Amino acid sequence: MNLSDSLEKTFRIQTTQKEALKRLGIETVRDLLYYFPTRYSDIGEIKMIADLESGEVATVYGVVSGLKTKKSFRTKVPMAEGYIEDTSGRMKITWFNQAFLAKVLHEGQKVSLTGKVTSGKYGLSMSNPEVNKTSFDAADVHNTLFKEKEDISEQIRYPIYRETKGITSKWIFHTIQKIFGSGIVKDIPDYIPEDILKKYNLPTLSSSLIWIHSPRKEKDALSARKRFAFEEVFFIQLSKASDKKENEDKQSYKISVDKKNHEEFMKRLGFELTESQVKAVATIFEDIKKDKPMSRLLEGDVGSGKTAVAASIANAVITNRPAQQNFGNLQAAIMAPTEILATQHFESFVKLFKGSPIQIGLLTGTGAKKFPAKVGPDPWTNISKAQLLKWVKNGEIPILIGTHALIYKSVQFKDLALAIVDEQHRFGTKQRAKLSQKENFAPHYLSMTATPIPRTLALTIYGDLDLTLLDGMPPGRKPVKTELIPPDKRDETYDFIKTEMKEGRQLYVICPRINEPDPDKENALQMKSVKEEAKRLKDKIFPDKKIDILHSKMTKTEKEKVMEKFAKHETDILVATSVVEVGVNVPNATMIIIEGAERFGLAQLHQLRGRVVRSSHQAYCFVFTDTNSAKSLERLKALKTAKNGFELSELDLSLRGSGDLAGAKQWGISDLGMEAIKNIKMVEAAREEAKRIIEKNLLKNYATLQKEFETRDRKIHFE
Ligand code: ADP
Ligand code: MG
């Protein structure tokens, strides 16, 4: 057996299983070994049969009897059943789909069983328990249960894996045990250098694999998890450090900032930059004066004025001429995640450059526009994409704004000196290189984000960027009034909203779910769904208002249409899931209700609230909650007291853990990797080691590390 062997060839697996595994991202022996358990069945659960209670997960020791196989009554699934008996009692056991167990076990076999206790017609029973043959007698257990719990507990720490239809946790467990049985794990060379393992007291790869899948002691499981968490962050840091180095080795345009031109532009803005905007602009001017490409992230809450910063930089850059040329302009590209956002950027830029000779293009999936217009009432005209691309290519259009369409091959710039990317977490070095289309050359790069994340996460996913914070807000902006609304205050709140709507204001209503409640899920009944809630609001609360819905199952075009109607005030109320999160500017929407608020992370709630800060009217955020838990309420109160989104994201991390960070998945870090993110020391250690290796060019000294890094890095960039 080899790590790279396909599971299909190594083990006899059925097509349905193969497909299920594929859904989990598992194809090879190695993939399965890296599919880690989410938890372990606990040791505190060994019980005598007579002490069992319905509903609990427990382990019992005893002797098996009455084994037989049959087909289940209704579904005809092959099954095995029997009894387990200890000194205190006897209990029925059944295994569906695992009739073979009846053959593997024999009458009188001593076993331990771990599973969920259910109560049925014939008293308590266990279905599909985990079985382990054991040398302990039921009587031994009885005697030692309280005296020597440690000894027994070492035998029964079962890993629990995330399942999918067609693959059970148990199948994964047994298959991994077979892989261990083949002996290959012992020989796996460790790609983490020995000195690093020693320095941070981490176990070797082969120990870690064994410990994470079948730990004998809790502390072994923990140290294996620590190692894998460390290594995940370490590989991300290696990747970021090498991206950074790659960029620093490139050339870029040296920009000289024309002071007079900049001051004129400031006048055109129509407002004074805030102190933090001024600082950010100055820092960026220093960066772009160099002939090395800038790599900077501008982080600032919604409404902090990132666009004004971006426009000032763009203006300074395009005022420069291409080298050895006394006409024309360098070029700037501005990329946004959606068509509406790109259009909004275009409109803001058009306002700022009105009356100047600067031409601005807009390129999206659906068409192209150019400013200024030669004729007509609008400041811009629709033109063909081909025409726009031609003018971008010959350099006549210095500012091009657009969606992802900007990185298509067909878009060629003449002298692209600046790339500004709004809210794209995964815009890496490779995409930057695509934009510039020049050998050993890269445009200055400014990434902007309003997504509040903790410092440890920022250090990891933005490890290749320098950070600038916009931590002030433009003056005169009224903070959003945030209120926690318990169930008995709802009617009052709806009445208040109605009076605001009479003044012409619009409302967002955020729900945690899309569809009808899923009856299988606990609590689902209380969890408001978008479709249901929209109907309820129309029937019961706002019968004379136009209500629309928005959720992630809609296509991109559908979503954009709904947003556009809302922006034009063709609808009054938008009932949505959290997809509405990423920045669309609807200044007239000044109210937001968040249903089931306790289900969202604080940073995410803050971002949702950010939807209503655009206006000069007073904005309101109504945090609807049904929770009675003092802890939950305390947590939600932070929304009223915290200074900004970053503070809230740190709170999320410390209070509820990484799973709560808004859309943790979008950063491509696993749940286990996120455990490292909670630990500033671990993140800093991984970062230090990665930086040292890349900056001193040491990777070539570590062949196994280099190979592993290259495989992983390729996966990250091309997935
Ligand atoms: P974001 O950081 O969310 O992208 P924007 O750049 O869209 O924020 O700015 C939000 C609003 O604040 C815009 O209407 C913008 O014109 C305005 N604005 C930005 N900076 C200032 C400032 N220094 N003073 C007054 N208004 C400002
Ligand atoms: Mg913005």
Task: Give me the secondary-structure topology.
Layout: H1 7-10, H2 15-23, H3 29-33, E1 39-40, E2 57-71, E3 78-86, E4 89-96, H4 100-104, E5 110-120, E6 123-127, E7 130-133, H5 138-144, H6 149-153, E8 159-160, H7 169-182, H8 194-199, H9 205-213, H10 218-248, H11 259-269, H12 275-288, E9 295-300, H13 306-318, E10 331-335, H14 339-353, E11 360-363, E12 368-371, E13 381-383, H15 385-393, E14 399-402, E15 416-422, H16 429-436, E16 444-449, H17 455-461, E17 466-470, E18 481-485, H18 490-502, E19 506-510, H19 530-541, E20 547-550, H20 556-567, E21 573-576, E22 589-594, H21 602-609, E23 620-624, H22 630-641, H23 645-655, H24 671-677, H25 680-695, H26 703-718
Parallel strand pairs: 4-6, 9-16, 9-17, 10-14, 10-15, 11-14, 15-16, 18-23, 19-21, 19-22, 20-21, 22-23
Antiparallel strand pairs: 1-8, 2-3, 2-5, 3-4, 5-6, 5-7, 11-12, 12-13
Helix pairs in contact: 9-10, 10-24, 10-25, 11-13, 12-13, 17-25, 21-23
This protein binds adenosine-5'-diphosphate (ADP) and magnesium ion.
Adenosine-5'-diphosphate binds at residues 271-274, 277, 300, 302-308, 450, 474.
Query: How much strand content do the residues show?
Result: 15-25%
Q: Which cofactor or ligand species appear? A: adenosine-5'-diphosphate, magnesium ion
CATH class membership of the domain at 259-289 and 305-449: Alpha Beta
CATH superfamily of the domain at 259-289 and 305-449: P-loop containing nucleotide triphosphate hydrolases
Separation, N- and C-terminal Cα atoms: 27 Å
Average pLDDT confidence is: 86
Rg, alpha carbons: 30 Å
